[in-house]
Design a protein that fits this description.
Length: about 140
C-alpha cells in the first residue's frame, strides 16, 4: 500500500468514481477538475488506485474536502482514514470566519465525525445551483 500525494490519471479517477457508484464526467471535464485541485492524496495497492481524496481551496477562507472515495471491497480497512488524515494535515487553516468542510453522502456521517467533523444541521443547509436553471 502506497500513500501518494498528487492526482491519479483522469481514467483512474473515473474508474474509481464508477466503482463507488458515482457518475463519471467526461475525460476533459475530469482533467479540468483535477487540474484545479489544491491538494490530492491517493492510495495505490499493486499500482491500482484504491482510495482518493482532494482539497478544493482558495487557501484562506474556504477549503472543501472533495471526492473522498475508497473502492468498495477495501472500505472499512483504514484507507479512507489515511487519506483524510493526510488531507487534514495539508488543509490550510482558515482565517476568522473561514470554513473547512465537506458535504457528506447520507450514511457516511459517522466516518467524518470520527475524523473530527461536526454536523451543522440545522444551522446550515446545503444548497445546490441546478445547472439547468442558470442564466
Amino acid at each position: 500500500m502506497r500513500l501518494i500525494t498528487g492526482n491519479p490519471t483522469a481514467e483512474e479517477f473515473s474508474n474509481l468514481r464508477r466503482a463507488v457508484g458515482w457518475d463519471a464526467p467526461s475525460s476533459a471535464q475530469t482533467e479540468g477538475a483535477l487540474y484545479r485541485t489544491s491538494h490530492a492524496v491517493r492510495i495505490e495497492i499493486d499500482d491500482r488506485l484504491c482510495a482518493f481524496g482532494r482539497l478544493v481551496s482558495d487557501g484562506m477562507l474556504c477549503t472543501y474536502f472533495q471526492d473522498m472515495m475508497v473502492t468498495p471491497e477495501l472500505q472499512r480497512q483504514g484507507l479512507g482514514t489515511a487519506v483524510m488524515r493526510a488531507l487534514q494535515a495539508a488543509a490550510p487553516a482558515p482565517v476568522s470566519g473561514g470554513f473547512r468542510g465537506l458535504i457528506a453522502i447520507p450514511g457516511t456521517e459517522s466516518f467524518y465525525e470520527r475524523q473530527g467533523f461536526t454536523q451543522q444541521v440545522p444551522q446550515n443547509t446545503v444548497m445546490v445551483l441546478d445547472q439547468d436553471r442558470r442564466s
